[in-house]
Design goal:
Elements lengths: L10 H10 L7 E4 L5 E9 L4 E8 L5 H7 L6 H26 L6 E3 L6 H13 L7 E2 L4 E3 L5 E2 L1 H6 L4 H37 L8 H28 L18 H6 E2 L2 E3 L14 E9 L3 H11 L5 E9 L7
Parallel strand pairs: 3-11, 4-5, 4-10, 10-11
Antiparallel strand pairs: 1-2, 2-3, 6-9, 7-8
Length: 325
């Protein structure tokens, strides 16, 4: 299948592909009243040693586009149809998930940082199916990606068959990602200060001492960023290559390398008070789909450190990996 055709598909087309593959999985069946019978698959997440539930079998890689981006329909004629199809699909899938969970204790439902709007809509629809008297909480972004704490578990890497030179290269990649994340952090800080200066520059009168301090901070940050980029060019020989510093793309590496990385997810600092409330709780971790399952697995493994009572990972589907040309 050619990657170039992915972008030409509307949400309506891709939802159709997904809906057509409903109920294709075997193993177990669950009665869902008037909705018929749902079939689901169970997959073992190796790091956390937990069973993850998957509702759909996806044989078409194009389906992942609608789950990730929820693109708008390509023309007005499809608009109402596509919106209705997506809405009905979310309602139906949330019913299946609710049925899966109905005999299980649930205190918190969360999903990964940076997830698509689809995850948010799905979880909101799922929350509406629970009795309003329950104390179930939806907490998005409970755990966030944090490259600063990531490291290579060499024992895992060797068990997965990575040779020593690849392990060393992966360690170098992680160090580079950390340094690039540091540059991006300073760039974001600088942009924020510049925005404040721009918003205040139109005011009449002489510049205040506070304004002068902000301008000095911008100059210092620009100098620091330039030094860090120069060091990055020296160390990784990136001089002359086009493109800005980009945040690392964990999905761009293969399964063995990805499974060798640990410590990538930490509790959201904005929700740090939650760490004391997780003990003894029953947590559902939802994601629209997985490829290798490592993100879901990493979050579940991190949750286990907080002495939670149980963790139930659920996704709609396992989607095929699109080969990189």
């Amino acid at each position: 299948m050619n990657d170039t055709i992915y972008g030409t598909l509307s949400s309506f087309d891709m939802i159709k592909l997904l809906i057509e593959e409903e109920h294709n999985l075997g193993y177990d069946t669950i009665e869902v009243g008037n909705e018929g019978r749902i079939k689901y698959n169970e997959v073992l997440l190796p790091k956390s040693n937990l069973i993850s539930y998957h509702l759909y079998k996806i044989s078409d890689t194009r389906v992942s586009t609608v789950l990730e981006r929820m693109n708008e329909p390509t023309n007005a004629e499809e608009s109402d149809i596509a919106a209705d199809s997506i809405d009905q699909f979310i309602k139906r899938a949330s019913l299946y998930i609710h049925h899966l969970l109905k005999d299980k204790p649930v205190d918190i439902i969360t999903f990964p940082q940076g997830s698509s709007d689809f995850n948010n809509e799905m979880v909101n629809c799922l929350m509406e199916r629970f009795d309003k008297k329950t104390d179930i909480r939806c907490i998005p972004d409970l755990f966030v990606k944090d490259i600063k704490s990531a490291y290579v578990n060499t024992d895992v890497a060797k068990k997965l068959g990575l040779p020593n030179y690849e392990i060393h290269l992966l360690m170098e990649d992680i160090e580079r990602w950390k340094e690039e994340a540091e540059i991006l952090k300073f760039q974001a800080e600088m942009d924020e200060v510049k925005g404040t200066i721009a918003s205040e520059s139109g005011k009449r009168g002489r510049p205040t001492r506070e304004m002068s301090t902000k301008k000095e901070l911008v100059n210092n940050l620009e100098h620091l960023i330039a030094l860090l980029k120069t060091e990055r060019e020296r160390k990784y020989k990136t001089k002359g290559k086009k493109g800005k510093v980009k945040f690392f793309d964990i999905d761009s590496i293969d399964e063995r390398r990805r499974r060798s990385i640990e410590g990538l997810y930490n509790i959201n600092l904005n929700l740090k008070e939650m760490r004391h409330l997780l003990s003894g709780k029953h947590i559902v971790v939802f994601d629209s789909h997985i490829s290798y399952g490592t993100t879901l697995d990493d979050i579940c493994r991190e949750l286990q450190r907080y002495n939670v009572a149980s963790i139930i990972p659920i996704t709609l589907a396992v989607v095929p990996i699109v080969p990189i040309p």
